[in-house]
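Hi U.,

Before I forget, here's the chain from the pilot set. I'm dumping it here mostly so it's searchable later in email.
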Amino acid sequence: MPAPLEIILLAAGQSRRMLGSDKRLLTINGTPLLRHSASLYTNAGHHLTVVVGPDDHSAQSTLTGLPHTIAINPNPQTDHSTSARVGLSATPLTARGIVIALADQPLLTPDDISALIASFDQYQATKIIIPFWQSQRGNPIIFPASIAQIIRDNPAITPRRYIDARPDLCIEHLATDPHFTRDVDTPQDAAALLDPISPTNNPHFGVNR
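Structure:
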């Protein structure tokens, strides 16, 4: 069995477009989305670091019982690149690959992640693997540990800037379904992808995040 990878799960967003609901705590098949996303990786034995905002006790309690490390982004109102850097700083970067993943992709399956990792290993863990559905770029993205180290050590470089600057190091993983490109940003997304939003299945309904 291949050695586990290091997963950085970005979960510090404030759900500004969700009209008062914390999307991470909305449920899919009765499980909070954040826990569902984290379990996708921990169940496969990967090492998980979850990036959350300061004093984010709701998110942390949702992960109780799962093997993980918490990293705090002190400025959760910033974009994903800040959370990615926080996660990289909290990760030992000793695995052959570092996965930067989002916490709001409910359609992803173990088979999707296994196929993505297989593409990474096909190139001997030397290329950045980016999933695509048709012409749309998705997530998560796998970085070789050596490249993750370069990004971590250079504050001016974000994962996106590195990808844009080095297309020669990037490989497109051509997905067979749209799972990599579907996430939850709006109530309409939640209605299509998650359980119905209500105070009954989401105790944090109405709480601004």
